[in-house]
Amino acid sequence: MPRLISAPFFDAIPVFSRAEYAEAVGRPSGDKVVTEMLAQHLEAGNIKRVARGVFASVPKHIDASKWSVDRFLAASRLRGGSIVAYHSALELHGYAYTIGHEVQLIARGAPGIIQTADFSCRFVKPPRGHLAEGVMVVDRMGLEVQVTTIERTIVDIFDRYDLSGGAEEIFNSLDLIPRVNAAELLKHMRAMNNAKAAGALGYWLEREQRHLGVGDAIIKKLHTLAPKQARYALGTKPKHGRMAKGWNVILPVSVVEQRFEGM
Length: 263
Fold this sequence. Notes:
Blueprint: H1 3-12, E1 15-17, H2 18-24, H3 32-44, E2 47-51, E3 54-57, H4 71-76, E4 83-84, H5 86-93, E5 102-106, E6 112-115, E7 120-124, E8 135-140, E9 143-148, H6 150-159, H7 167-174, H8 182-192, H9 195-207, H10 209-212, H11 216-223, E10 231-232, E11 241-244, E12 249-252, H12 253-256
Parallel strand pairs: 5-7, 10-12
Antiparallel strand pairs: 1-3, 2-3, 4-5, 6-7, 8-9, 11-12
């Protein structure tokens, strides 16, 4: 059985690169034998190709054609040093209002989208003011995956609402968050240097100040980062927005009036 030789590696490394597999079986990465071994395992259903040079181990007694790989783990292996971010980070933290098909990664190199059989992966360049300390590690099937902290994620989604499902999805998701480190939010927003995002963030924090336990000092400091004049934010269109009082940002009417499903 072709699985027997490689079974310990498959059990230990659920998502792997060709190079990692070659090293495990004691062969150079470009060796034709490695190609033949991987082809045998693919045919036998022991593994599944995620993308070029990246594979996932299929659990025993599972039909590979009906099995889906952990998309966060698999996506994180498509490009070295990738960080799960934006709406995908909300999902990974357990605070997304809806579940998406796309995995968004902050990564070095050219931005773009890779389509796999189970999910699509979007690579995004590191945003302005990207702080290394705004990243943490989570366990996925025994392997480490980098993801932005919840505070960094919140700032990022206000900055790139287009990667976060839009204003209503953002605010519905934020309603699921029980607590935040407001000082961290302020630090990341200062680094981001986006006045419209700061105004929208400040509006949310002030609205949920008591629930989230945010001090007045943080709110006052966020006011200094907000726009000096009224600006449309979070993709709000003219005639479809309402001023967020005190923050100089015009947000969708549904956000300001809190007309969300279940409320």
